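Notebook B, p. 112. Complex prediction, attempt 2.
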Amino acid sequence: MSFVEYSDFIQDGDVAIVYLGHDSLMPVKVQQGAQTQTRYGVIRHSTDLIGQRYGSKVTCSKGGWVHVLHPTPELWTVSLPHRTQILYTTDIATITMMLELKPGSVVCESGTGSGSLSHAILRTVAPTGHLHTVEFHQQRAEKAAEEFKEHRVDHLVTVRNQDVCKDGFGVTGVADAVFLDIPSPWEAVRHAKAAMKKQGGRVCSFSPCIEQVQRTCEALADQGFEEISTVEVLLRVHDVRTVSLPLPDFGPEPSAQMESDAAEKKPPAPNQASITMKTTTPPREIPGHTGYLTFATKPRT
Amino acid sequence: MADNRDDDSQHRIKEGDYVVLKRGDIFKAVQIQPKKKVIFEKQWFFLDKAVGHLHSTTFEIVSGGLQPLKPKDSESSNDAKEAGTDNRNIIDDGKSQKLTRDDIETLKEQGLKGQEIIQQLIDNSSTFKDKTEYAQDKYIKKKKKKYENTVTILKPSCRILAMMYHGREPGKICHLRYDTLAQMLTLANIHAGSKVLVFETCAGLVLGAVMERMGGYGSVIQMYPGGEPVRAGVESFGFPAHFHDMLHGFPICHVNALLAGTLDTTAKDPSADSKQAIVAAEEKQNLPEAEQQGSPEEQSMEASSGSDGSHDQEKRKEAKAQERKVKLEEKRRKLAASAALLEGRNADGLVIASRFHPCPVLMCLLKFLSPSRPFVVYSQYKEPLIECYTKLKEQGGAVSLRLTDTWLRHYQVLPNRTHPLLLMSGGGGYLLSGTTVAMDRSKPAGSQRAEEPAPKRQKLTDTEG
């Protein structure tokens, strides 16, 4: 297992994702002799996981069962331990395409946070790219570095514990793309520019508030960035449902009544008709806003 | 830095390069060819002079040729910042512009640059200085759009091409909006080193996007309908030659045979003659004319072997036949290679985006995936995806099913004028995504029967909802 390479069988030391049911996933560090409690009972790693194929059904002690999935950045995003607010797949997908990330890209990111976006970037730039990620919170930086090692992607990433607004990314002239998710991105714009290749590249800043966007756009324009564009992407999930709509009883039709005059014995048919169909409903509540994504191009300098 | 020059050579426009022309939000993909006339935004020009310049250079169109524009000379706004506060005294009498249409045409004929014409228009507008600062900006922006004749030449990327197709020819890509394409690539976990199946009728845009994300590592098998795969969009990406080594094609009309095990044996053994004949017969379907020519040609060869004049012709025909034979062999070899890749039924991802009904396509192609692998299906309409969802729930073999779409909102961000630009709801299409799982754990891995109809107790998955 690795977050950048599929394998077929679960091995000791892997991170597997236990799929308990809809929207309920749990990452498990696979260890010989270890056990994991789920609401369906216990999973014994030595017998239930190690040597099994990813995607297998595992029967737990209480007779219930779960599926064990190969980790992907997307599954990790919905199951990872939060240390901060994280970016979700909808924004990540947009960021990845609009930053033109691909194998070989060199990317700078700050802050690392819980590493949700970091894993997606690493997946995309592997095997020849690199991620330079900066986190000013020491404990979070250390935790992220530890996770990258556990997930076998540490050869693709450098974690730096410093303040990006003061000290920059720790590299200059190497990045194809820069991503900023910090409270005051406008203070890091010049560092972003310095980190990027002289041939140019793409930059993205994620901010929840429009005032932050306003200041960032000004800073980007001042630093000579071009094609500045701000977008927002909202995900809509459609729950598939079978619904049944009853038809009201309008009472006997006049024509039918006349008929029934002729044949008086016929009892009035109970009108219980309803129409069943497959449709979708929106969830009761959906995230209406995550953040504004501001993209720009650094021209050749 | 000594390697600077080397660095740059990779970023220069070369003859034969695929590039994208850009003005404002309008894109057009072209190939750089000598003496080729290009029409873009109602203007024609030759691309010859772009060769040798760096990508992302902006050019001015001067009488059919291109002249590189110095960066940073564009925003020279008029320094006389005189502006009104409101429009109470601005009357629409249609006489505010003192230049007539003919005057403007004359200016154009004199070869005045766009910037200069705009300045003339401003100087001759009696109301311009009374307009508010914002209205002035807007006026200039509008005129720029009309009179500026610049074009930027860009290196193609998935971002640019997806935006271009959506803007220019949404019908050709089933109205797949670029943010939806972005979701697909991420949800399908497309990355270097995997084996991905793609079924698309989006001019090759989706295929190209997948290839870009794989960077030449791993393999992509394009399942295509009809005689030949459509790859126009792939060309526009301008991939290096080795990227094409990872691309395989497999006609979808052979899928049933492959699943039944009747195709794979033929494709596997290249030496067997009878098998070659079968592939040749398939070829005949695709190229009926070429094949029919075959036998009379051979006859004429024997008949006319005496005369000198026909000797050349005969040779040519022979060469032609030989060439066709080589082509046929090549095609058969490729089919065999694709079949071999599919046979393992261990693909790592599946991406479907077509004008066909997605349900049978998904049900059929899922059989080629390993367990615990993501798949994503695009459809312009929601209803067929509801059907896919229902069928997958009944049959089992997939978890984490989600039917989604995304809304994309653009913002204008300017001092005191920040607001959403336009709401693009609908139109971007819908996605069904999920992850494959093993149907039954007792069955041996990679078994041909791994995807038999699910046992009844799979119904338990209903608890998910």
